Amino acid sequence: METEDAAECSRVLAVADGLFYAHGIQAVGMDRIRDAAGVSLKRLYRCFPSKAALVEAYLRTRDEWARNELSAYLTGIESPRERILGVFDWLHAWAQGADFHGCAFLNAYGELASGSEGVVRAVRDHKSALRRYLRHLAGTTAARDPETLAAQLALLLDGALSGAHVSGTAAPALDARAVAATLLDASGAGRPAPA
């Protein structure tokens, strides 16, 4: 029975993920999720005791998805510089898809930040993890200040995500890639890190 419950909860979360990301969190009610997932409202609330709990689980799942997808995309790129630029190549590839609706975290923050500590926490956790990842990438280069470079790249990435969403085109990702290359050159990251 526990396996069946877990499968239903996973289905509810997958349905919520698709609906929240495509239509926005406030526009999607629990009844719509229940109907799309094919579960009773009682079962839905047993999986997620509130919409806020479901939204937080959605954001945590999105965080895991984004970090896994980005990491997989960068696998095999050996040059530290190209790995960093690859972050923007990944965004460009993703933003070309019909299922791209911008940054789920910025969208959720814009919709719910004033009323949900869980959303704020999930968004900040994701953005912190992304910045740590960029810091790790910057640390593999000869950048004079990897922490500052990572902060600049994170800001650039958020801007590219928003720009791609608003414009309906993936072009901002390529523009951001060009700016990232300039930042890498200015930071000294164009050279291999000392052994």
Automatic annotation (TrEMBL):
Pfam families: TetR_N. Residues 6-66 form the HTH tetR-type domain. Keywords: DNA-binding, Transcription, Transcription regulation. Coiled coil: none annotated. Residues 29-48 bind DNA. It comes from the Bacteria. PANTHER family: HTH-TYPE TRANSCRIPTIONAL REGULATOR YJDC, TRANSCRIPTIONAL REGULATORY PROTEIN. This is TetR/AcrR family transcriptional regulator. It comes from Streptomyces albiaxialis. The lineage of its organism: Bacteria, Bacillati, Actinomycetota, Actinomycetes, Kitasatosporales.
